[in-house]
């Protein structure tokens, strides 16, 4: 028989003394008996453990995507003198505005202020509801456009796989024509199925696969470019770009294409929209590609770490982009295609081209979901709030056989299918990879990468109106607005030029 006697706390720790039958005394701390409390951050969420290097890795893997394939064409339009310089300038602007955005992760106090976990949260907290609605509309439009661009890019890669085999077996002189429309439709059917996944945390594995694929096909493209340079026994290209190469390009075409190249480069660098999510989220699998943590709480402050991470990631990304763009231009000169893996500057080894394009398709399946699931979630949240308890939004368990079951709602099934159908139809109407990518990059560059970060920084830090810093920040914003408008105009001109020879929805031409 034993008895337990409670003893007054000693230095804040309660002690229980157990008197055993044999007179033994056993002391045990209550703190040791209780389960350890979970470590949490100041917002009650599990403790973040991310560092400079994990944050840098997240940004790099999020940024490098199909936009890298159009950079050789962009450098070809600008030439050796301007192409690399423009890429570096875009990198510098994006690096700087991203550091401004990182400052807006917390409202008020930079160390203890409330966190803004998403881009739109930061806009709401700093600039108010009206700017939040404007930003939301721009974000949703941008994501819709990216869905179209991704559908086009995937179909072009699928088409290239078929053409590569044709060229290999029939010879390089064969036209080997193939329409992209059937492949856009196939990609759309795939996305209808994947889009029924309820939310992004269910597709975290797609993001990991997508990251591996993007590095793989970028590496293959650079390797094939280096091999082509060796085969040519020299570097191709000119200082001024295609207009000086005797290709029959007029001065006006040179201007439009150069402006479109700005849009292509802007598209390749677009990551500001997810910067705060990387800075804020803990174990958000849709954003974390290489590990399951993000930046730990201060010291040092998250903003300081993210600034360094942005600098590191932009530097690494710029090196990769310069490699892809400059190696592609050096290999093909003025004939550089708008997609390095599908323009058939390379014919052999055809199987390696097939592998690279397969990697592109797999990557873009994941990219489409990452970019469209936020649109799905936004509409479905609004619908659930507007019609609570409605049968339209009520989820039902659907069982397929004995082993598989999943949730589905009438709204999700109809709305997501319709959305994919619309992006697929628009992609069939405008299957022009380079021009569409340039337009998307142009229209999203100024508002999301420059305007909102600058305005939030000015409001957050109370930069005095008319001060030198205020004037310089607005000059930067105004200059980037001009670049965005010009790049959008160039991309529209590119679409118009492509439409002259395009038959929408043609499945055999």
Automatic annotation (TrEMBL):
Q: Which species does the entry assign this protein to?
A: Dichanthelium oligosanthes
Q: What name has this protein been given in UniProt?
A: Amino acid permease 3
- The transmembrane residues are 52-73, 80-102, 137-157, 178-197, 203-227, 309-330, 350-371, 413-433, 439-458, 470-495
According to the UniProt record, one GO cellular component term is: membrane
Q: Cite the record's Basic and acidic residues compositional bias ranges.
A: 29-45
User: Any idea which UniProt keywords this protein has?
Assistant: Amino-acid transport, Membrane, Transmembrane, Transmembrane helix, Transport
| Subcellular location per the Swiss-Prot or TrEMBL entry | Membrane
Region of interest (Disordered), ranges: 25-45
Pfam families recorded: Aa_trans
**Stored InterPro entries:** AA_transpt_TM (IPR013057)
Amino acid transporter transmembrane domain spans which residues? Answer: 49-496
Q: Which GO terms describe its biological process?
A: amino acid transport
């Amino acid at each position: 028989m034993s008895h337990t006697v409670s003893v007054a706390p000693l230095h804040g720790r309660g002690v229980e003394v157990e008197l055993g039958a044999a007179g033994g005394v056993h002391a045990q701390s209550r703190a040791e008996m209780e389960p350890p409390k979970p470590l949490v951050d100041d917002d009650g969420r599990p403790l973040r453990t991310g560092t400079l290097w994990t944050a840098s890795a997240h940004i790099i893997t999020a940024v490098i995507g199909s936009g890298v394939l159009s950079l050789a064409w962009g450098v070809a339009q600008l030439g050796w003198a301007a192409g690399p310089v423009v890429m570096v300038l875009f990198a510098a602007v994006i690096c700087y505005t991203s550091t401004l955005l990182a400052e807006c992760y917390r409202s008020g106090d930079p160390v203890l202020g409330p966190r803004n976990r998403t881009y739109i949260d930061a806009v709401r907290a700093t600039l108010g509801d009206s700017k939040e609605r404007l930003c939301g509309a721009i974000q949703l439009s941008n994501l819709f456009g990216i869905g179209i661009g991704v559908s086009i890019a995937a179909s072009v890669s699928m088409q290239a796989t078929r053409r590569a085999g044709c060229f290999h077996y029939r010879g390089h002189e064969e036209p080997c024509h193939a329409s992209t429309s059937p492949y856009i439709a196939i990609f759309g059917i795939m996305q209808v199925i994947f889009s029924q996944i309820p939310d992004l945390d269910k597709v975290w594995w797609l993001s990991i696969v997508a990251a591996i694929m993007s590095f793989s096909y970028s590496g293959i493209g650079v390797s094939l470019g280096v091999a082509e340079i060796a085969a040519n026994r020299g570097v191709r290209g000119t200082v001024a770009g295609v207009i000086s190469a005797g290709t029959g390009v007029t001065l006006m075409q040179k201007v439009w294409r150069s402006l479109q190249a700005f849009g292509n480069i802007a598209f390749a660098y677009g990551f500001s929209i997810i910067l705060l999510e990387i800075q804020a989220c803990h174990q958000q699998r849709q954003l974390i590609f290489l590990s399951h943590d993000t930046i730990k709480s201060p010291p040092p402050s998250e903003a300081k770490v993210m600034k360094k991470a942005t600098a590191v990631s932009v530097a690494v990304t710029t090196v990769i982009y310069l490699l892809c763009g400059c190696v592609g231009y050096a290999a093909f000169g003025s004939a550089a295609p708008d997609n390095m893996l599908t323009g058939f500057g390379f014919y052999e080894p055809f199987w390696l081209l097939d592998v690279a394009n397969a990697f592109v398709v797999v990557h873009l399946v994941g990219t489409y979901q990452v970019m469209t699931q936020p649109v799905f979630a936004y509409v479905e949240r609004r619908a659930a709030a507007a019609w609570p308890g409605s049968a339209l939004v009520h989820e039902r368990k659907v069982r397929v056989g004995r082993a598989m079951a999943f949730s589905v709602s009438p709204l999700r099934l109809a709305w997501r299918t319709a959305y994919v159908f619309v992006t697929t139809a628009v992609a069939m109407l405008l299957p022009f990879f380079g021009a569409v990518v340039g337009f998307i990059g142009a229209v999203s560059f100024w508002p999301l990468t420059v305007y909102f970060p600058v305005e939030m920084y000015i409001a957050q830090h109370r930069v005095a109106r008319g001060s030198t810093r205020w004037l310089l920040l607005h000059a930067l914003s105004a200059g980037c607005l001009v670049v965005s408008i010009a790049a959008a105009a160039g991309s529209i001109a590119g679409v118009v030029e492509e439409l002259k020879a395009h038959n929408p929805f043609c499945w055999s031409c």
